[in-house]
Amino acid sequence: MAAPRSFLWTRRIFLTLLTAFVVLPVYVMVSSSLKPLEDVSGKFEWIPSGLTLRPYVDIWETVPLADYFVNSIVVAGAATVFSVAVAIFAAYAVSRYTFRGKRVFTVTVLSTQMFPGILFLLPLFLIYVNIGNATGIALFGSREGLILTYLTFSLPFSIWMLTGYFDSIPRELDEAAKVDGCGPISALFRVIVPAASPGIIAVAVYAFMTAWGEVLFASVMTNDTTRTLAVGLQGYATQNDVYWNQVMAASLVVSVPVVVGFLLLQRYLVAGLTAGAVK
Description:
By secondary structure, the protein is mainly alpha-helical. It has helices spanning 5-33, 37-41, 54-62, 65-96, 102-111, 121-135, 143-167, 172-179, 184-195, 197-213, 216-221, 229-232, 244-264, 266-275. Helix 1 packs across helix 13 (244-264) and helix 7 (143-167) packs antiparallel against helix 10. Belongs to the binding-protein-dependent transport system permease family.
C-alpha cells in the first residue's frame, strides 16, 4: 500500500528542515574559518567575498595548539585503554559469576550515573592536593590526575554497558571453551572478547569522546603545560579581541579525530549499542 502524498511531502519538508538545522552551523563554522578577522567581526555574509587559509596557519602560533593536541590524545587515549581494560574484567565477573555483594556493586555502579560531575569537582580537588602534600605525588595539574578523574565517569558506564553485552552472549560458549581446556581468563580472551568486540568498540568510542571534549574538570585540574584542547580553545579570546576565525578553524581541526574515528567505527558502534539490549 502506497503512502499518502501528504505523508510524503510532510516527510520531505521535515527532513529538509532537519538537514538545514544540522548543516547550517557547520557551514557557518567552515565559512568563518576561511575569512579574515575583520570580515568575521563584521556583518555575517552567507557568501564570503574573500577566502583565505591563513587562520589554519595562525591557530598553531596564537596558542600552543600542538601541545594541547598531544595532551588530549594522551589523556583521552589512556582513559579509554584503562576504562575498557578494567570494564572487561569487571563486567565479565558480574555477568558470569555469583558473589557476595554483587547486587550492591551493580547498584553502586549505576548510582554513580545519577550525580552531576560538578559534585565530584571539589572532593577530587581536595583529594589530589592532600595526596600531593602527603606523598609528593603530583596528581593535581598532571595528566595522570586528569586520567583518573575521567575514569570516575567512563568506567561505571563501561562496566554497565559491557555487562549487558556479555549477558547476551550464550554461556554455552564458556562451557565449550572450558571443555577444550581453557580457564576462565583464557575463555574470556579467546572466546568472549572476540564475540563482544562490537560492544567493546562502542565502550571505547564513548570513553574517548567523553574525555576528548570534557571541559569542567580539564579547566580546573590542569595547568599551562597539561591543558587539553577543550580548554585550550579559550586561548583565542584575549582581553582586547576574540579571534573568531581562528576559533572556528581550531574547532574544525579538533573535531577531525573524533569525526574520522566515528565514521570508521560507525557500524561497530551501532551494533554494540543495540546488541546488548536484545537477548
